[in-house]
Amino acid sequence: MAETTAHAAETEHELRLRIQELEALLHSLRMRLPNPPPDAVRDLAASEERFALAVRGTNDGIWDWDIRTNKVFFSPRWKAMIGYEDEELPNEFSTFETRVHPEDHDRVMQAVNDYLYGPLERYAVEFRFQHKDGSWRWMLARGRALRDPDGKPYRMAGSHTDITEQKLAEEQLRHARLAAEAANRAKSAFLANMSHEIRTPMNGIIGMSELLLSTAMTPKQHEYLLMLKNSAESLLALLNDVLDFSKIEAGKMELDEQDFDLRHTIADTLLALGVRAMQKNITLRHKVAEDVPVMLLGDDGRLRQILINLVGNAIKFTDRGEIVVSVRIESRALDKTTLHFEIRDTGIGISAEVQGRIFDAFTQAETSTNRRYGGTGLGLAICRDLVELMQGRIWVESEPGKGSTFHFTAVFGEARHDSVEKPSAPSTGPLLGLAEKPMNVLVVEDGRVNQLVAAKLLEERGHRVQIASNGQEAVEAVRQENFDAILMDIHMPEMNGFQATAAIRQIEEKYGGHVPIIAMTANALKGDREQCVAAGMDDYVSKPIHSAELLHAVERFMHGRSAAPPRLEITGLPSVAARARKRVPPFKPEAFIAAAGGPEMARQLVAIYAEDSGRFLQEASAALAAGNSVALYEAAHALKGMLGVYTATRASETASHLCHLAQDGDLFGARALLEKLKKECSKLGTALAAIPLDASAGG
Ligand code: ADP
Asked: Is the CB–ligand 1 distance for residue 293 below 6 Å?
């Protein structure tokens, strides 16, 4: 009995399965052999015709995939798109799958899967697809699935569009854009270098006219000279704007963060601007909300610059009334404080249409503005960039005739030294009085003007100054006499500052001692400091020479080296002090032979050294001359690799450093470094040639 029941159940189950199979078959037969009423047939034929026409018109290939059998119908056009006749390709899924580029395969299959069984709403995917001739075409595949009442897909159909041309065009566009961006950066770097170079003689002009003003002259002469000095100063201000702007554009602007007293900075800045406001009879007020911290961490120099620009504009464009600067906290989070600055004036205002443009470079409200008020239209562009560097934003609200309110926000850190006392603000004017202890200073500088300015500054403080006009003379002087500090120009004829420093360090290696060397350079771009450190210098001042900065740099070394920790700590590069302790090992022949795996290989390497290094150095020089930082990078990179083979650590490091400069587009800095690298390479060549490695020594 039980047996019969079991048997019956089994049969019933079997039957159910058969029915299900038949239903499925019927379903698919219905799909293939529709049997609709006659007018529907007509409609269907018409719509199929339309469809075929449309398909032919679009140039797309059509596919229709029966998911359950894995058979795929590929239209003749689908096959023609990849170079095949209709009968040449089997109608199977693998015909599609095997032609997808190996790098795109998984992504495409994932897309199919995610569309059929996953979250994807639409199937549209781009991939490379192999043509009969072996080449790759870019395809765009789109499709839709048909699903049974349970949502399970049983069929999917769609199209292939050849988008190769479009992809190529996109690629070309991307290349063109990159090239244009690189060119723009190169131009900005050039501008930055250029304006720096011009600042040096400008400094001479201003410095000399200041000196001249203190001598006896007729009132007329005095008046002319004052005009000369004023013109020079406004030219310098303009240069500074161009320099800042191009530095930002070239991506070389960095914030220099330190603790500062915000109220102090604001009061100080407004004090300087107060004279101009007073002359125009405008009130200049400021208020800082009480909860704003006393000490903050940030770049107060750049903050000053923004304030000077905005308040300066407010004064320029206001004839009566008042200007109010206010500061409040916008938000606080952990150790970050976002401040909101507001500069409100009662001046001429800015029309709505112009408001959107004034933060762009070289824009002024109207062309007549320039003639009436002066200016370059760079100020607000620089402010915007500086504010962005400070992770803030800048905007304006204004009504013509009523006045303007400029707003900006900026993020500051928590002061490292949590003191309520004011930090000793660096004095911008000349330091008065005599130094504690006179020092013996060597000034190495080829320009007469800068010689005079530096010497005068130092002598007024009671220091003894000796002048050398080039590197050679400096090295001579160091042989003769002990100095407490050396101020070293970089670009000099005969022997430049880097070479002279190297020569002095060499003398010291022999006889002991370490004289602090402070570089003076007009080129204050990123990468300079690294280069000065790498050359063995201790500190760095930028030209034009500021009295306070110069004296500070020199007098740091007043009580010997120990009292003056190196200021130039650069991440990634050991500091001067660390370098002195842990010198890069000089080239060791044994190490090289061992690394080469024996004398035979070493001999071959020596034989090709001169040719290979010569070639790469030449390539680097050519790239530099052509201003091509990419080619320079490649040559330096090749050198770095090959020097490594010769275990020439020092030279290889120099090459690596050159790579960085090339990457930064700092072709100016690269020039000096390439010279150094050439020397190191030639030294290495001499050392290699001196290794006794004749064939008989092999084995
Ligand atoms: P500029 O060196 O010409 O002053 P800016 O970038 O600082 O360049 O300013 C651009 C323009 O925006 C100015 O020429 C002026 O037309 C307008 N502008 C800026 N600040 C004000 C202000 N406070 N009131 C009226 N107009 C202003």
From this structure: no
